[in-house]
């Protein structure tokens, strides 16, 4: 299936979850947020939230500093 992750088209296997997609683009285990089709997905729901063809996923990482 084709999805957009952080503005880039990606080909992912059917049934890929938000958790798997986040792990593929972010090495940081904490300080990460995900929005699927402009809706924030709670971390507790990442494993149970499958991606579908055409979805848009934004993975955001908090950066410390100023």
Automatic annotation (TrEMBL):
Cited Gene3D superfamilies: 3.10.20.30
One Pfam family in the UniProt entry: ThiS
InterPro entries xrefs: Beta-grasp_dom_sf, Mopterin_synth/thiamin_S_b, Thi_S, ThiS/MoaD-like
SUPFAM superfamilies: MoaD/ThiS
Signal peptide location: none
Record-linked NCBIfam families: thiS
Descriptive protein name: Sulfur carrier protein ThiS
Organism listed in the record: Actinomadura sediminis
UniProt gene name: thiS
